[in-house]
Design a protein that fits this description.
By secondary structure, the chain is of the alpha+beta class. It has helices spanning 8-16, 67-77, 94-97, 115-119, 123-142, 159-174, 180-191, 233-242, 264-275, 282-305, 317-336; strands at residues 27-30, 38-43, 49-54, 87-91, 101-105, 200-202, 211-214, 217-221, 228-230. Strand 1 and strand 2 form a beta hairpin.
């Protein structure tokens, strides 16, 4: 059975030269849940499982979805305190599959996309996992980028100003309708930008939905396409936004909103102890995160409209459009109190 985005014959030929024990035929399945790069799980005749990542189908924004970059980052972090999947190779020859791709080992476990997945975890395991989530983030931020070969991944200084420029450009390229909250938040973020203290590897999308977990631990951090060098507090603000607490609006639908996980305050205290970094101004970074997610979400929304992400897979486009508005409003509220 053919799978959109995979030329099974040529990809299999390429894989056989990189994975010695691979036993065709291979069965490819698109993994649901990704709205950016496309992720496929494939198994060979013996049941051995792997993962293939490639860019979205059709036109994408300039410099986005860089497979070589993502492969390089994951490979560099192998053996560090940040758990990642093993890599098997990068293909930059578009003749093989129409676009670059790379291959990783499949790490068994669970991705906590929603409350139902988290509800299967015992409360004690939820607490342990929450502690490991912030510990791994602290470990990532304490790594010396030069020591792991990623010192030239990006500029270390002026992270926020670079990010604001990038996502304002993304917003303008993807805008399909006016959202005044986006424009006002852009202005306030530029006007009240804090001074960056130090620099680190920044994941850019660090949340439970981008982790393979099991036994109260992260088994692999996934989705490194937004990773760069810069202000580590951007990652912290992003994680806190995704870390809803019981009783908050809509929290019952989220993994951490069902209870049993550490509070945001507990995460902040643990991160400060591990890194020595002051989180007193973290609301700016939370606002920045909501605003950036709104810009990213608008790009995804537009790509779905033009069919660049392959099959729609039942996505509610109106709900996605509304989520961009909600993010923008949340960002503005954090900045204005």
């Amino acid at each position: 059975m053919s799978v959109e985005g995979i030329n099974a014959e040529s990809v299999t030929d390429w894989l056989q030269s990189r994975i010695p024990d691979l036993t065709p035929p291979l069965e490819f399945t698109l993994i649901a849940g990704g709205h950016s790069n496309l992720t496929y799980r494939f198994v060979d005749r013996t049941g051995a499982a792997y993962v293939l990542r490639r860019p979205p189908l059709g036109h994408v924004l300039e410099s986005a979805h860089d497979m070589g970059r993502e492969h390089r980052i994951i490979s560099a972090l192998a053996g560090s305190a940040v758990p990642v999947a093993p890599t098997f190779g990068l293909c930059e020859d578009r003749a093989v599959n129409g676009a670059p791709f790379y291959v990783m080992g499949f790490v068994p476990g669970t991705v906590l996309h929603d409350a139902a997945a988290a509800a299967a975890l015992p409360p004690a395991e939820r607490a342990e996992l929450g502690h490991h989530v912030i510990d791994v983030l602290a470990a990532l931020h304490m790594l010396d980028p030069d020591a792991v070969g990623l010192g030239d991944l990006g500029r270390k200084e002026a992270y926020l100003s670079r990010q604001l420029k990038r996502w304002i450009k993304q917003w303008e390229a993807s805008k399909t309708h006016e959202i005044p909250e986006m424009e006002e938040t852009s202005r306030l973020l530029e006007a009240h930008m804090p001074e960056q203290v130090g620099a680190s590897i920044v994941h850019g999308d660090y949340r439970l939905g981008n982790m393979m977990v099991g036994g109260g631990r992260i088994r692999a951090v996934l989705d490194w396409e937004l990773c760069t060098l810069g202000d580590p507090l951007a990652d912290v603000g992003y994680l806190l936004n995704a870390w809803q607490e019981p009783g908050e609006p809509g929290a019952e639908l989220t993994p951490t909103g069902i209870g049993g996980f550490p509070t945001r305050a507990a995460l902040c205290a643990r991160y400060t102890r591990a890194t020595g970094r002051d989180l007193a101004g973290i609301n700016y970074y939370r606002a920045f995160s909501h605003w950036r997610l709104a810009a990213i979400g608008q790009g995804v929304y537009k790509r779905y409209l033009v069919g660049a992400m392959g099959e729609n897979r039942g996505m509610d486009l109106d709900a996605y459009r509304n989520s961009v508005q909600t993010r923008a409003a949340a960002a503005l509220k954090l900045l204005t109190g």
